[in-house]
Every structure is written in C-alpha cells, then in structure tokens.
Amino acid sequence: MSAQPQPLKRSAPEKSASGARRSRVSLRERLAAWRDQHFHGFFSSLGRLAARPWASGLTVFVLGFALALPLLFWLVYDNARDLSGGMREAREVTVFLKPALDATAASALASELRKREDVSDVTERTPAQGLAEFRQLSGFGEALDALQDNPLPSVLVVTPRAGGNVDEPPLLGALKADARVDLVQYDAVWRRKLSGILQFGERLIIVVAALLALATLLVIGNTVRMDIQARSAEISVMQTIGASNGFIRRPFLYAGFWYGLLGGLVAIFIVGIVEYALAAPIRALIDSYSQRFALHGIDVLVGLALVGASAAIGWFGAYAVTTRHLVAGRPR
Asked: What CATH number was assigned to the domain covering residues 91-186?
C-alpha cells in the first residue's frame, strides 16, 4: 500500500502572517497616512478653486461684502461707545445763578454747598471765565467784542458724592428750590437715552451679524452642493469600491474652509478701503472739536476672529451639505 500524500497546510500560516503584518502597522505610520490624506485634500481643494477663477472669485467677493457689513457696524459702534464713555460717566450738576447775583453771592452759595454731606466738590466759574471759554470755542471773537456788557451769569459746577442715587440725587431738589438759582442742568436723562441707544445698537449688530452669517453659510453650502453634483459620478464610483465617507467628504470640507477664509480676508480688505476713503473728512471733523477724540480702526484680534469665524462657517456649511448627500446617495 502506497502512502497517501499529505496535503500542504499553508493557508493558516499565510493568514497568520497577513494578520501579523497588519498588526505591525505602527501608530506613526497611521498618523503619516492620515496626514498625507489631509494634505492632499487641503491642496487639491485649493487647486479646484484656482481652476475656476471667475466663479470662485465671485463667490469669495459676495462672501466678503456680506461679512464686511457687520464688521463696519461694529467698528462704528465701538467708536461711538468710546466717545460716549466720558459722557455716561459725567456726574456733575451745572447750576446757573441769577444774572443779578455778584461774585460774592456766588461764593457764598458755593461755600454752603461744600458743607453738604452729599457734595464732593464745587467749582466756581465767573462770567468773565465763561465768556472767555465761549470766545475760544465758538470762534465769534469779533462779534463778542461788540457787546457792551457780559450777558453770562455765574456758574457753579457741583459734583455729587459717589454712592447716592445717580439718576435723581437729593441735591437737585434743594438747588431747584433755591431762590438764587436760575437753572439746574443735570444730564441723567440724556445719559439714560444714550445708554439705551448703545444697547439698541449692540443688539442690532448681533442680529445683523447672525443674519449675514446665515447667508454666508447658505452661499457656501450651495456652492459646495453644486460642486458635489458636478462630481456625482466620481463620488458614486468611490462609494462603490468602498471609500469611507470621511475620505469622500474631506476635499469638500477644505473647499468650504477656503471659501470662508478668503471671504473673511476680502471683508477686512473692504473695511480697510472704507476706512481710507473716510479718513480725511473724519479727521477734519475731529480737528474742528480740538482733537478731543481719536478714532481707531480694526483691531488685530477682531480681524483674526472674523477670519476664523468665517472659515468655521464655511467648514460647517460644507459638512452639512456633503453629509446629506452621502447619506442619501450611498449604495446599499
């Protein structure tokens, strides 16, 4: 009886060797592959945008104008807030005395007010000082020289002590009831109105920024959607051979990122042009007020925040569109 040949058992070692080879793929190699895939998506998406310069340029400029509007509104609001800072913090009460009162009577009233516990300081301004200040600020020096008498009364600038009722201090009632006082001016009502205007402006900027951010999201999403439709056959082939959603989605995500990033840079450029165009008339207006206020432009952190936010919006819009397409179009 001849011996039966034994079958060769090589399949198991091959499987084990293949499994060993797969298990020996290090974390470093996996990270290198992940990095290469992201670099490919990063630069290939930029190349696709450069291959369509007119369409990509129009989309980027539309995004730039949409993002520049809230930035301009915020710039105006921030300068107005700085300008009104001193107005809202002013606590002085301006007391105009009767024109018939002389300097001695004005000094006596100032001494009485300094003795009050709710008064921090009292500054006296004589009619001569008031006329000199008005001459300097108004520019009507020759017309004032024609006056025979000084029509301005004595003025007391009273500073209430901190800690009391800012809107209606008790000092106001006593000053209005004094027979020597002609007029009491206290700008609490104007400060409340100014604060209300600034709060309304801040809320308006938030609403406009949210609406334009939504518009930016829709524009980028629609642009990426059209790009997906143009490459639908390519995506179907990749899905059929087993490509993952992340691999297919990655170039479109970087395309949305580039749209948002470039749109933010264009928005900063547009705001810079607007600042340059308005610099001369605004400087002339500030000089007419003796340079008591200095405008400021875009802060570096604000510009970086705008660019980062626009890039994030573009990434999110592309992610939402590609995810919907991949879920609806993956073959079963």
From this structure: 3.30.70.3040
